[in-house]
Specification:
There is one protein chain. The protein has helices at residues 23-29, 34-41, 55-70, 94-102, 118-131, 155-158, 207-211, 221-242, 260-270, 281-284, 291-301; strands at 6-15, 19-22, 45-48, 79-83, 108-112, 137-144, 164-173, 178-186, 194-196, 217-219, 252-255, 310-317, 321-328. By secondary structure, the protein is an alpha/beta fold. The strands form 4 sheets. The chain has a 5-stranded mixed sheet, sandwiched between helices. Helix 3 crosses helix 4 and helix 8 crosses helix 9 (260-270). It binds oxa(dethia)-CoA. Oxa(dethia)-CoA binds next to helix 2, helix 6 and helix 8.
């Protein structure tokens, strides 16, 4: 990207539901064990939304924290993006509900759908808006109540996911900070590898589809695993090269938190030590689009990221979609 105008990340926030569901609790309901879930995924627990904790509620909580951290009043925000594949309703956009909740007057508000890659896609779009001068103060939230799409009788998927939201504010800056390079992509031929079939215009819900549990996520875990590693590694290498950096100049990698074995495989293929990767999936599971900004929030709060550091965000999800971005922390 050639521009002397940058989009600095000036605030960060996160929110999760109240209720924790441990592996032991799942093992009491399903034919699974804490040992299987931990050894195959690294997950020990996840947060699961209650009826009053739908997507806009978590998104608004995370957005409010980010605005406070940035010292931004709601009136200053001119653009609000919510990355989600689990909106409150088919329409209007969840972003419009969040805009009203946060008291952000008149800002443009829209949702962006890229499944677990939603935050990296969103940061790419958001940065372009700020760098072009079309936005001065932007709020990007990634929020999913993915457990809403889960068949709690299907042990191969329900142990993996949790709910949450993460947010950042972007502000125009003349200093070289914020997103420096990005590589996002998709492979639509792989759409069936992870999908919810029923409930859209292609297969409107019928009693037969509900009985066949087609309103829930189906997933080919092994294939997704393979594509995830390749998508994250290749996009990461491209983003780092485009930023004019070497991989060993990256202070911290903040990856999508789907499976510790995926993160280990990505680290190995990139030739980076696992200690250079931020991992918190043991406590949250896979929170879909929210996973990268929740990890980013915790990394900053734990002092793992210092001003001037180059960090690499990398994600992968249904679509199939993937994306990696190099960010200079400011
Ligand atoms: O954001 C992207 C979202 N998607 C993903 O991240 C998925 C990526 N894939 C994965 O993380 C892994 O493929 C899984 C964790 C989903 C599965 O791990 P795996 O090592 O690929 O296991 P598998 O699917 O090959 O299944 C191995 C065995 C099977 O039994 P059999 O056929 O070998 O007898 C499964 O039925 O494990 C069984 N199994 C379970 N056993 C106990 C599957 N789920 C469970 C479970 N508890 N929860």
């Amino acid at each position: 990207m050639i521009s002397s105008r940058y989009a600095a990340i000036t605030g960060w926030g996160m929110a999760v539901p109240q209720r924790v569901v441990t592996n032991e609790e799942l093992a009491r309901r399903l034919t699974t064990t804490d040992e299987w879930i931990r050894s195959r995924t690294g997950i020990a627990q996840r947060y699961v939304a209650g009826p009053d904790e739908y997507t806009s509620v978590l998104a608004s909580r995370a957005g409010r924290v980010a605005l406070e951290r940035a010292g931004l009043v709601p009136e200053a925000v001119d653009t609000l993006i919510v990355a989600t594949c689990t909106p409150d309703r088919p329409f209007p956009a969840t972003a419009c509900t969040v805009q009203a909740n946060l008291g952000i007057p008149r800002a443009s508000a829209f949702d962006l759908v890229a499944a677990c890659s939603g935050f990296v896609y969103g940061l790419t779009v958001a940065t372009a808006l700020v760098k072009s001068g079309m936005s001065q103060h932007l709020l990007l939230i990634a929020a999913d109540v993915f457990t809403h799409l889960i068949d709690w009788q299907d042990r191969s998927t329900c142990v993996l996911f949790g709910d949450g939201a993460g947010a950042v504010t972007l502000q125009a800056s003349s200093e070289r900070r914020g997103l420096l390079s990005t590589n996002i992509g998709a492979w639509g031929e792989g759409e069936a590898l992870m999908a919810v079939d029923a409930g859209g215009t292609r297969l409107p819900v019928t009693p037969e589809l509900l009985a066949a549990r087609r309103q829930y996520v189906s997933m080919n875990g092994r294939e997704i695993f393979r594509h995830a590693v390749r998508g994250m590694v290749e996009s990461a290498e491209r983003a780092v090269a485009e930023a004019g950096l070497q991989l060993d100049e990256i202070a911290l990698v903040v990856p999508h938190q789907a499976n510790l074995r995926i993160i280990e495989a990505v680290a190995k293929r990139l030739g980076l030590p696992l200690e250079r990767f931020f991992v918190n999936l043991d406590r949250y599971g896979n929170t879909s689009a929210a996973s990268v900004p929740i990890a980013l929030y915790e990394a900053v709060e734990q002092g793992r990221i210092a001003a001037g550091d180059y960090i690499l965000l990398t994600a992968f999800g249904g679509g199939l979609t993937w994306g990696s971005s190099v960010v200079r922390w400011g």
